[in-house]
Amino acid sequence: MPWMSMDVEEQKVKFVVAATRGEKSLTALCQEFGISRPTGCLWRKRYQEAGLAGIAERSRRPRQSPERTSAELEQRVVEMRGRYPDWGARKLQVLLARERVELTRSTIHRILLRHDLVRDHDRHSQALQRFERDTPNELWQMDFKSPKGWNAAAGPLSVLDDCSRYLLVLQAVWTTHAELVREQLQTAFLSCGLPAAMLMDHGIPWWSARAPTGATQLTVWLMKQGIQLRWSGFRHPQTQGKVERFHGALERALQARGAPRKEPQAWLDAYRWEHNYVRPHEALGMQTPASVWHKSDRSYDPHPPRWEYPAGAQVMKVGSQGKLDAFGARWKIAKALRGEWVQLQQVEQRVLVYYCRTLVRELDLKTRSSTAVERWFPQSEL
Fold first, then answer.
1. Which end of the chain is more exposed for a tag (fewer CB within 10 A), N or C?
2. Which CATH class is domain 140-292?
């Protein structure tokens, strides 16, 4: 049975499910989703032909570049960069224009990339759209700080509220072991309530590269609380821009104030208090995070009841090997979901598999193939 993994846009999934099921007219759906009718027809056609893989984001890079900058102009850019190695494309564009070399900033940046003249932390593409949640606790961002300067296998664990920038967790766990991360999250849930969603990268312990769906025991525990899971793009840390920027500020503070040799947690606790209650943030109109954030009204349940799927939904139990016997075949789902109940939503010859609110897999009944969904989406929004 072949296996694939893909990156799917949430809006496309919502659209093609509704369009394929004929819930509304195609014209009405296109108006609702803010797309043209030809685009809607194209998405529906691609989904019908190839499922989620057909609507995965495709590269817009042309196969040929007939207007690629000449070698002579490229050399001018390289030479200018050699004179000013710490300058980026914007500043180089100004200097080149003074010498009557008119190039766009994006062209200069591509030349620098081709000649390996862009630093690693500047290589990431800018996010297509900067997102920010409207109210506290709609989304928490979670990540580990790099171990640089901490003399440990992993830096502090950080959990940041997307809307208010309130720092919910800053803990020196010094390891990526799931149980220790779970303890910190449980403490945060008990004192701060539950977020509606959490955003993480594809790292241990909240993602497993060896699991078909990436699911781990930690992510299953989060899903059982009704938390919707979000994942940043591979090698695109700007998706988690707020926690990444916080880590940058933490790094600068560490360098300016000196690394704490004794009681690093006490240093982190003091810094967290300063971040939340003292430091004004430009994005908040110079308010402090604590003045914007408030406790979530969703309470943590250490023993949540079995998830209730919609009335009439088709549900099945995942077997002891993490597989599902359905539609005349045995499908590999995830070992982390052994013994758990999942919902099956059939759309013509394909079946979407959900655990709680999370879409974890797509089954193709025609080809007998199973696809892992790299970014998981909430069922309520499909």
1. N
2. alpha beta
